[in-house]
């Protein structure tokens, strides 16, 4: 009897420690996006404005277009998860928008803030719900990974663009 009581007590304690805290996925997504935001923003600041039109070849995005694409992607991915972008956001025209460096930084930072301000509106029970994207259907949980992956992909692209122009990423000095 004592062994059974001890086993049940240990099991109860272990189960308590094994539980995932509320909104852990959403909070970890915001944290990882924060790392990518910091890197992308520091690259955007390090690249001179006269290089914002630079692209490595015809048919690929310029620095400006990549930065605006990241911002648009943040809004677009969250929109497909059920959170509409602010009414002032033109997702279809964002990437081709003509804006100076300061405005692009403002747009970029606002897009990350939109994600972090709204991602916690999802309850854990909603993470398993399916959401539709033009190319696939996935859970909101998977879409959180997509937010991180998308910004990480373009962080790498911007690192290559910066280095191609003799600019060392600020965090690697």
Written account of the structure:
Strands 1-2 form a two-stranded antiparallel ribbon. The chain is 58% helix and 3% strand. The model is unreliable at 3-18 (pLDDT under 50). The chain is mainly alpha-helical and 173 residues long. The chain has one domain: dinb family like domain (Four Helix Bundle (Hemerythrin (Met), subunit A)).
Shape: globular
Relevant CATH superfamily: dinb family like domain
The CATH architecture comes to: Up-down Bundle
Mean pLDDT reading: 89
Helix content: 55-70%
**CATH topology, anyone?**
Four Helix Bundle (Hemerythrin (Met), subunit A)
Number of domains: 1
What is Rg? 21 Å
CATH top level is Mainly Alpha
Describe the protein's topology.
Blueprint: H1 2-18, H2 24-46, H3 63-80, H4 101-118, E1 130-132, E2 137-139, H5 140-164
Antiparallel strand pairs: 1-2
Helix pairs in contact: 2-4, 2-5, 3-4, 3-5
In short:
By secondary structure, the protein is mainly alpha-helical. The protein is built from five helices and two strands. A two-stranded antiparallel sheet has the order 1-2.
Defining key terms:
Four Helix Bundle (Hemerythrin (Met), subunit A), 5 helices, 173 residues, mainly alpha, single chain, globular, two-stranded antiparallel ribbon
């Amino acid at each position: 009897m004592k062994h059974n009581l001890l086993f049940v007590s240990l099991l109860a304690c272990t189960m308590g420690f094994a539980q995932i805290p509320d909104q852990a996925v959403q909070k970890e997504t915001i944290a990882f996006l924060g790392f990518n935001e910091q890197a992308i923003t520091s690259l955007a600041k390090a690249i001179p404005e006269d290089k914002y039109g630079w692209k490595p070849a015809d048919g690929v995005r310029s620095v400006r277009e990549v930065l605006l694409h990241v911002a648009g992607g943040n809004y677009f991915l969250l929109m497909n998860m059920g959170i509409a972008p602010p009414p002032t956001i033109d997702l279809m025209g964002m990437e081709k928008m003509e804006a100076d460096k300061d405005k692009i930084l403002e747009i970029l930072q606002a897009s990350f803030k939109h994600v972090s301000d709204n991602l916690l509106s999802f309850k854990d029970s909603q993470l398993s719900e399916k959401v539709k994207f033009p190319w696939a259907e996935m859970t909101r949980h998977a879409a959180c990974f997509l937010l991180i992956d998308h910004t990480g992909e373009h962080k790498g692209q911007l690192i290559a663009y910066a280095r191609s122009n003799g600019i060392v990423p600020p965090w690697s000095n």
